[in-house]
Amino acid sequence: MGAGVFRTRGQPAAVEAVRAMLLGGMPHALLLVGPSGVGKATLADDIAAGLLCRAEDPGDRPCRECRACRALEHGNHPDVHRLGPTGAGLVIPIGGRDERGVRDLVRDLSLLPVEGGARVAIVTDADRMTEDAQSAFLKTLEEPPAGTVLLLTATDEERLLPTIRSRCSRIRLGPVTRSEVERLLVEAGLADAPLAARLARLSAGRPGDAVAMARAPESLTIRGEVGRTLLDLASATRADRLRLGRDLLARAGEMAAGLRAASRSTAVADASSSARGTRGRRASARSAAPGATTDAGQATEPDADALPGATRVPAAERRAAALALVVIWRDVARDLAMVALGEPADVRQLDLLDDLDAAARRLPSTFAAAQLRRLDLAGERLEGNVSPELVVDALALGWAA
Ligand SMILES: [Zn+2]
Question: How far is the CA of 4 from the centre of ligand 1 (A)?
Answer without folding.
Answer: 9
